Write the structure tokens for this entry.
Amino acid sequence: MIRTLQRTIQRKSLHRRFSLRSGVKCGTIFDPGHLIGTEFDRNGKREGLGPPNARGLSSDSFSILAPFQDSLVAFHSVTGLPWWATFACFTIGFRTSLLPLSFVARKNTEKLMSGESLKHTMHLSKLYEREVAPLRKELMLHQRNKNKAGVQSATQDLVRLTWMRIHGQFSVWKMTKVNPAWSLAMPITQSIVFIVYVLSVRDLIQSGNLDLTNQGIAWFLDLSQRDTTYLLPVLALSSTYASIEQGLRGGFLQSKKDTGIGDKIGSLFQSLLILSFPLSSQLPAAVFMYWIPSSLFGLTYLKVIHGLRRNNNQQGKKIQEK
């Protein structure tokens, strides 16, 4: 009798300790579903929460893409627009919310690529090239003669000068109160959002939660398939090409003819853009419902900003003439 009572007390004690640790109330049947937000009855059937995807269209409620997917689906439900218009309007709304960041990044880039910052940067570059040029020749000479000690010494001098150049550049940015990170904030943000958008739409389609078969318009009725006419990828690449042209060559860098920075950066990005056509042409039409509106929005923003700056400059000249 005493042993039976001791065993009963031990079982209750273990049950109580397990309940305190796991958060399961005493007297309930333990199952793993309780710990992940899913409840089951005694027969093993799900109850209370409905089917796995009842709370949203995302295939995995714990996925990092779920917030974006749920926002997209909620926007579609509220507006009642077809999916091609939903993607486009959602893109315009998102780009509009980024206007403050875009303005700050634009002002920072202008300050970075002009004025005192550009002047000191160019001076540092000239000093660096003047000191590095003879060291490079010396290094090549030691390499031909297979002089290991000379190669090591020249390499150390090159590394030291390079670090001095980098430190000097950071000092220039600090002195002129310019932070290059702000100039990279906008393209990095847009790249991340574009990747998240592509992955989210692909996940919804592959999981069977989103049917885009008849959700397009004109010649691209099926948004889940690629555009066999190649008009969408051509339009996307053309609008992006024009945005780069307007931003790096048609804007504030146009007057900096002595540096050619805008032409070099613009040529690099535009070349990469053209080379990406084989890959871009294989993307489903739904991707371009974000890409094209986003590029056109950016192009319009740049034209408006450059137009306002041009008008301000003309008014300033008129005031000086008076």
Residues 9-56, 58-62, 252-258 have pLDDT under 50 and may be disordered. Residues 285-321 form the longest helix (37 residues). The two ends are 112 Å apart (CA to CA).
